[in-house]
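[Target chain]
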Amino acid sequence: METCIEVQNVVKRFRDQVVLKNVSISFEKGKIHGIVGRNGSGKTVLFKCICGLMHPEEGVILVNGKRVGRDVDMPEDIGAIIEAPGFLPNYSGYKNLRFLANIRRKIGKEEILNVLKTVGLDPESRKHVGKYSLGMRQRLGIAQAIMEDPEILILDEPMNGLDNAGVQDIRALLLELKAQGKTILLASHNHEDIAALCDTVHEMDGGVLE
């Protein structure tokens, strides 16, 4: 078994509240791993710690063998949706992705147009993101997470705001990405998503991972 993410005895506090309580887990490469739990159970904080957006007070997180916060500030090969994706409302979906792509300069126009098609958005549309429905914003968030072809995807409630057809589209996309060898961490309230997609399921409750 080849693991790509290892979380070892991680503790995260906000003032006197312990949000992650000695969490230890490893995620095998090339699988979809589900994390379930109520709001406030610690799922989002765990995802932020793995991405390097927050640093735990105790414990170690390794992504592809590199320690987050010491060897790397933020692991390079991760695409993520955590909470509502923040986009510039007065620009089109394409332009928003173009601005983000310019940061790392790994992809160009063609890849951006292709990824918009992949998630079911019109790549030629000039509609501003501020006029997007919740489902369209969510599709754009997924496009942003996958556009640079990362090995690991961390998706916090990726089906939020999608209609039934959208949910089916994104489920099919995630299974296709898994078939390409990607590792996906998925937090969802929807038991059907978890049952349809996940190879492993872990429950989080009050900062403790079952």
The first helix runs from residue 43 to 51.
